[in-house]
Amino acid sequence: MSKHRFKVDKLIRDKMPEIMRARGMVLCERSMDAEEYYKRLKEKLLEEAAEVCSAIDKKEIIIELADLLEVMLAIAKVNDMNLEDIMMAADNKKKENGGFDRRIYNEFVEIESNNQNIEYYKARKDKYPEIDL
Fold first, then answer.
1. I need a labelling partner for 129 at 20 to 30 A (CA). Which of 18, 28, 30, 98 fits?
2. Using CA atoms, how far apart are residues 114 and 37, in angstroms rounded to an integer?
3. How far apart are CA 52 and CA 89, in angstroms?
4. What is residue 89's predicted lDDT score, i.e. its pLDDT?
5. Cα separation of 55 and 65, whole Å?
6. Which spans in 15-125 are helix H?
7. Is residue 123 exposed (0-12), middle (13-18) or buried (19+ Cβ within 10 Å)?
8. Which residues 6+ apart lie within 8 Å of 8 measured at CB?
């Protein structure tokens, strides 16, 4: 039998090394320092968000949302926050700016050059590219 090695290069859940070894796999693992851990959590956040977007049915969506929440809670813990802090910030933001219940999609904004809000968009050219009128 020949062996095969696959690059993983990502943060994994705490019990996965034991689970993988029980399945006959050999893995190369290490513990990260705080700085790398935080970086890898952010990468994991994007990975899990992409998996939510790829989910095709309700069962898969809930599993992926649970994974996303787990990463969010780990990021909160690193920053000395908890779920209550996140929920309070979400409630405040919803009170101030509303939620997403009305399903509003904004294709573009048009702003006069002397409007102070134009600086927000100009400072984020990658996110909000200027388009011709």
1. 98
2. 44
3. 22
4. 97
5. 10
6. 16-22, 34-54, 58-78, 83-97, 118-122
7. exposed
8. 27
Q: Which of 5, 12, 87 is nearest to 47 (CA)?
A: 12
Residue 122: DSSP 8-state? H
Which tens digits make up the pLDDT trace of 2-20?
999 889 999 999 999 999 9
Non-local (6+) Cβ contacts of 74 within 8 A are: 41
Q: How far is CA 80 from the centre of its chain?
A: 18
How far is it, in rounded angstroms, from Cα 18 to Cα 22? 6
Place of tokens 């019990």: 15
Look up residue 15 and give its two tokens.
């019990």
User: What b/e sequence results for 45-54 when a residue is b if at least 16 CB atoms lie within 10 Å of its CB, and e otherwise?
Assistant: beebbebbee
9-36 b/e (C-beta count within 10 Å ≥ 16 → b): eebeeeeeeeeeeeeeeeeeeeeeeeee
